[in-house]
Amino acid sequence: MLYFEDTRIEALDIHVVGNKAKDEPLMASPALSAQVTDEALMQTLTSYFLDGFKSEECYNLYHETDLACNEVWNFVGRIFDDPASLHEHSVSLARHLYECGTLPQIKGGEFYVVYFSDCRLGGETVDAVGLFKSETR
Q1: Each residue of 72-128: pLDDT tens digit?
Q2: Quick one: pLDDT at residue 137?
Q3: Domain range spanning residue 119?
């Protein structure tokens, strides 16, 4: 069961990722965007990011030869190893998203990398890294 009642945002980074095929820019944040300390803002952002998770379906990152070759898996793993490195690796994730987004129908938008603590998954309390993109209309 997913349970986010006690979940906290420890760090949040925001980048603007355009569509490379349309020559839209990638604008990486120059520094960590936020460490959320205001409780009302914490609740609003947590709700914004997590309210969409209703089912317990889990998806895993994949690579056809070796998971260690999956770039996203590596960047997120480094964030788990050292949460203070979130900004450095979120920039790498934004660049990776930008380089992979070459279809003209993909819209640019804000890309969020969020480090959550105290998520409950299957009765276990875990930390989580969320990758979210909101598209510009």
Answers
A1: 999 999 999 999 999 999 999 999 999 998 898 999 999 999 999 999 988 899 999
A2: 66
A3: 2-135
Cβ partners under 8 Å of residue 81, min gap 6? none
Residue type, 32: L
Q: What Rg, from alpha-carbon coordinates, does the chain have?
A: 15
Structural domain count, the chain: 1
The residue count of the chain comes to: 137
- 3-state DSSP assignment of residue 122: coil
Distance in angstroms (rounded) separating the CA atoms of residues 61 and 33: 26
Angle, helices 86-100/71-81, rounded to nearest 10 degrees: 170
In sequence order, the 6+-apart residues with CB closer than 8 A to the CB of 32 are: 11, 12, 13, 86, 87
CA distances from 97 to 54, 84, 101, 136 (A): 25, 21, 6, 15
Q: How far apart are CA 115 and CA 83, in angstroms?
A: 8
pLDDT of 28 strictly over 80: yes
Please state the pTM of the whole predicted model. Answer: 0.91
